From TrEMBL:
Keywords: Membrane, Transmembrane, Transmembrane helix. It comes from Agromyces mariniharenae. It is a multi-pass membrane protein. InterPro entries: Ccc1_fam. One of its GO terms (cellular component) is endomembrane system. The chain crosses the membrane at residues 12-31, 37-57, 139-163, 169-191, 198-220. GO terms for biological process: intracellular manganese ion homeostasis. Its main location: membrane. It is found in: Endomembrane system. This is VIT family protein. One of its GO terms (molecular function) is manganese ion transmembrane transporter activity.
């Protein structure tokens, strides 16, 4: 595994939260403007598609840039080893000594690691790279992020589809806050942080976003 880190459960939960807040904000804005159910449906689908595509693109660009940087480091370390491996061995020895290893043992450890795989030893100890990132991983990470965003966006859309004739912005407001509470708890648990703080933070952001969006719709129209 290289520098790339898959979104993981917490990252996917965050993307889903973004989808919930983003789509709910768009719908509240249109609802504040007095939009019809059909207009709200189009707005919801548009927010889902656009947000998912944007999430895919931004995550792909992030992971692709990380992979490019990783490949540059690997190329530089390979070049340094070919030019002067003794200097790289000295650097690895110094690395262990700085972490409290006795000089003789540090040298012996560095030599053994060099004998096994000099490049891997340099990459892992100096840069934290345990293996090159595969080209497919940036696509998989981007797709997972987009899918999580779409899943979050689907909640407001689902409410609209379930009750198109009895659309009430307050109902979506309440449903979205409940969904945000669930995702914030999951994020806090996965990160081993305070659940109450995560709840307060996420719900506040969601409520303010929807309130401001609704107000904007009312003011504009």
């Amino acid at each position: 595994m290289g520098w790339y880190r898959s979104p993981g459960f917490r990252g996917l939960a965050v993307a889903a939260t973004d989808g919930i807040i983003g789509t709910a904000g768009v719908l509240q804005g249109f609802a504040g403007a007095g939009a019809s159910s059909s207009t709200l449906l189009v707005a919801s689908i548009s927010a889902l598609v656009a947000g998912s595509a944007a999430g895919f693109g931004s995550k792909y660009a992030e992971l692709a840039a990380e992979r490019d940087a990783e490949r540059a480091v690997i190329a530089a370390e390979t070049k340094d080893l070919h030019e002067d491996s003794s200097d790289e061995l000295a650097e690895l020895t110094a690395h262990f000594e700085e972490r409290g290893v006795e000089p003789g043992l540090a040298r012996s450890t560095a030599e053994q690691m060099f004998a096994h795989d000099a490049l891997a030893a340099q990459l892992e100890t100096e840069h934290g790279i345990t293996g090159p990132t595969g080209p497919a991983e940036q696509y998989l990470g981007a797709f997972a992020t987009a899918l999580a965003f779409a899943a979050g966006s689907a909640l407001p859309l689902g409410i609209l589809l379930a009750y198109p004739a009895a659309w009430e912005s307050w109902a979506v407001f309440v449903a979205v806050l409940i969904s945000l509470a669930i995702t914030s708890v999951l994020i806090a648990i996965s990160a081993r942080t305070s659940v109450p703080r995560a709840l307060a933070r996420t719900i506040t952001i969601g409520a303010v976003t929807m309130a401001l969006s609704y107000l904007a719709g009312v003011i504009v129209f």
